[in-house]
Amino acid sequence: MTEYVLNSGGLKNQPALARKFVREVVAGLGSDVKVLLCFFAEPELETWQPRFETMSRLLQEWATAGVTFHCSLAADPDAFEEQVKANDVIYLHGGITAHAVRMFSRYDLAGVFDGKVVASNSAATHMLSESFWSGDERKLGHGLNVVPIRTIAHYQSNFGDDDPRGPIDWQQAYDELKAYGDTSLPVYALKEGEFVVREQ
User: Fold this and answer.
1) Closest CA to 116 of 139, 142, 88
2) Global pTM value
3) Half-sphere exposure (Cβ direction) of 91: Cα atoms closer than 13 Å
4) Which of 5, 96, 134, 197 is the most exposed place for a label (fewest CB within 10 A)?
């Protein structure tokens, strides 16, 4: 069984929800947890190491008392599958949704992640979903359908307010996604810090 804990993103803006999220991710894994931090959704490779350092620190801050994280960085897409095997938690961070879909489409993710806890933020949450509405691209798209749901990240936040295109009409985004993709699947419009848990 694989547990997916899919987050909207914006955790640094919601510290109480960030703690709740991290505690859900590590529930039942014991006091020493090996975490693979993956930034493949971020196309600028030079950002991976500083983001790794920041997130390693924040995860420990948000952790349940007595839990120690042993973090490693997924630095090479060709080594990703082997690194997954060596870790308890695979944490897929956000970035650009279309880039995330391209980067992860090379893998049989359901098989690669079998038996793991997979956490995701923002663009990675979209990528894992059947379909999504992307705030960075402001359009609908299909994910890799690893988790059969439809998602909107950063829902009703100020994400995109400083964009030349103007603020996002979140209700319109929701309405568009509700009519898109496999309409038998639930739509999760996740406000920043909110997450959904799926086991499969």
Assistant:
1) 88
2) 0.96
3) 23
4) 197
**Half-sphere exposure (CA, 13 Å, Cβ side) for 55?**
24
Residue 77 is classified by DSSP as: G
Tell me if 62 sits within 8 A of 18, measured CB to CB.
yes
DSSP letters spanning 158-173:
STTTTSTT-S--HHHH
HSE toward the beta carbon, residue 160, CA cutoff 13 A: 16
**pLDDT at res. 166:** 87
pLDDT digits (tens, 9 = 90+) for 124-134: 999 999 999 99
Query: What distance in Å separates the CA atoms of residue 119 and residue 89, rounded to the nearest whole number?
Result: 7
> Which segments of 63-176 are extended strands (E)?
68-74, 89-92, 117-121, 129-134, 139-142, 147-152
- Give me the half-sphere count of Cα atoms (radius 13 Å) on the Cβ side of residue 22: 23
The token pair at 199 is: 């086991």
Residues 55 and 62: their CA atoms lie apart, in Å, by 10
Residue 56 identity (one-letter amino acid) = S
Q: What angle do CA 169, 175, 176 make, to 5 degrees?
A: 90
**Phi, psi angles (nearest 5°) of residue 27:** -55, 125
Q: Is the pLDDT of residue 82 over 90?
A: yes
